[in-house]
Amino acid sequence: xxxxxxxxxxxxxxxxxxxxxxxxxxxxxxxxxxxxxxxxxxxxxxxxxxxxxxxxxxxxxxxxxxxxxxxxxxxxxxxxxxxxxxxxxxxxxxxxxxxxxxxxxxxxxxxxxxxxxxxxxxxxxxxxxxxxxxxxxxxxxxxxxxxxxxxxxxxxxxxxxxxxxxxxxxxxxxxxxxxxxxxxxxxxxxxxxxxxxxxxxxxxxxxxxxxxxxxxxxxxxxxxxxxxxxxxxxxxxxxxxxxxxxxxxxxxxxxxxxxxxxxxxxxxxxxxxxxxxxxxxxxxxxxxxxxxxxxxxxxxxxxxxxxxxxxxxxxxxxxxxxxxxxxxxxxxxxxxxxxxxxxxxxxxxxxxxxxxxxxxxxxxxxxxxxxxxxxxxxxxxxxxxxxxxxxxxxxxxxxxxxxxxxxxxxxxxxxxxxxxxxxxxxxxxxxxxxxxxxxxxxxxxxxxxxxxxxxxxxxxxxxx
Length: 464
Fold this sequence. Notes:
By secondary structure, the chain is α+β, with helices and mostly antiparallel strands. 33% of the residues lie in helices and 30% in strands. Among the domains are: 81-120 and 230-260, CATH 2.40.50.100; 124-225, Four Helix Bundle (Hemerythrin (Met), subunit A) (Up-down Bundle), CATH 1.20.120; 264-345, Beta Barrel (Elongation Factor Tu (Ef-tu), domain 3).
């Protein structure tokens, strides 16, 4: 190899100044790059850790809204006024009347007051009327005879009185025997007695006439009862007899027709439990729905609370009347109604789920800085325990005392400034973050049984 080849094969020699500058730059940039890479990773780990800590609790935000306190019940749609038209006499139904449209009275017929609904055979009552009229005529004739007898008796009294006066003028003597004198006196007394009898007969005859007139009126009234008329303007809800059917009126009047006076005003007879009836008062608003009209709601007001309670399956139930406007005629009698009574209402108040008041944290999750003493009523389980909610503080929880208002069973109103809108309160655990002893059941699940464990120091059979 010649000199030129040796010179070309030799590596270039680095200059001392440039080599030292590159080494120091690399040593300074390496920690900076490591720091830049570790900061986002550490932040991600921290966020993940905080997220896992928050995910341990099920929380709900305090929000503002309207709270409506209601009581639910089931009832039936009833006409506001129902009239049961019956019969006061016994007999066979011979015919039905006509409604305002000229059609035979039937289910759903609209009738006016005084219209004929049905007629009952009146032949027997007509015979009774004839007999009563005959008795009346006989009584009138008897009265005339009694009055004639009285006139005869008056004449006899006048004659015997004159004879007795003449006998008194003569006196018992040779011209008038004593026996004849006494006879005049006796005839006068008998005539006066007969006059009294005739006057009594007249009174009796007049009483007989009054009795006969009453029998006539009774027979006429019975004949009138054979024609069944509508007592009010209304609609026939039910017709309970047919032509040819015999009705018998004894102690109870048989029911022939059921009339509703006005179907534009209806009532709901709701059965309310004794635990809720004291919360309902006349004038409370009620909203109802019926299964026959899905999607439609009707509103009314409580009219009356009946005091004649009944017992159903050992539960005392009261009937509450709700007045409903049925001008559109959508509600039909005897539909089943689902009624919701609106007891009270709060507008734009802070609301907390009821579950937040019932949740109790494990001891190890309570924040030491905000823990309560065993003697504190809010923690000891006295009357104030339902006024405590728990808020998350990192992995721990802290109690906050609140003053509660109304509750609808799902949400509860809170009063005061102890909690603000949007604050998260704990309603439960997502999962149990505590370390469970091996073989022990989950304390958060009361239905998980304790599993038997093998004795210490011995091998146990494996469970599959």
